[in-house]
Amino acid sequence: MKVKTLFSEEYRVLAVMNGDDCPAEEFMLNGEKSTEAARFGLLKLLEYVASNGLQPAKWWHEADKELEIFEFIKGPLRLFFFKGKGNDIAVCISGVRKKTQKADKRSVQNAAEWRNAYFEALNNSELEVVTDEN
């Protein structure tokens, strides 16, 4: 499994790679003009998390407690993630524009599958971490 480092300071904020694509990064960099400020806000939020950890908790919450999937919140946007091992504080999956009070079930299930793949790859020493420099 391949993950990409989005931000790295005290902690690492990673994103899963799907082949050569990084869905979380694409979500934050591309989208509707109306969500540009929220997408930029998510990037700044992830940069802050890399330096300071997951505090304050008002910027994120559990999307599914049982599956241990969380979501960062910025305006109408939600970026799904799970907590990685060690200093890998957040491993981002993908994002959605929130339309209802409930978390998007398909996105949560997808995130749970990536979470399982991450920990399996980690346990099998098959986790590849890449950066833009790679």
Structural class: alpha/beta
Q: Main sheet: which strands, in order across?
A: 3-4-5-6-2-1-7
* Helix share, percent: 25-40%
Radius of gyration: 14 Å
Shape: globular
Describe this structure in words.
The protein has 3 helices and 7 strands, in the order ββααββββαβ. The protein starts with a strand and ends with a strand. The chain has one domain (2-126): RelE-like (YaeB-like fold), CATH 3.30.2310.20. Strands 3-4-5-6-2-1-7 form a 7-stranded mixed beta sheet, sandwiched between helices. A hairpin with a 2-residue loop joins β4 (69-74) and β5 (77-82). It is globular. It has helices at 23-29, 36-52, 105-123; strands at 2-8, 12-16, 60-64, 69-74, 77-82, 88-97, 128-130. It is of the alpha/beta class and 134 residues long.
Brief characterization of the structure:
This protein is an alpha/beta fold.
Features:
134 residues, alpha/beta, YaeB-like fold, 32% helix
Topology diagram in text:
Elements: E1 2-8, E2 12-16, H1 23-29, H2 36-52, E3 60-64, E4 69-74, E5 77-82, E6 88-97, H3 105-123, E7 128-130
Parallel strand pairs: 1-7, 2-6
Antiparallel strand pairs: 1-2, 3-4, 4-5, 5-6
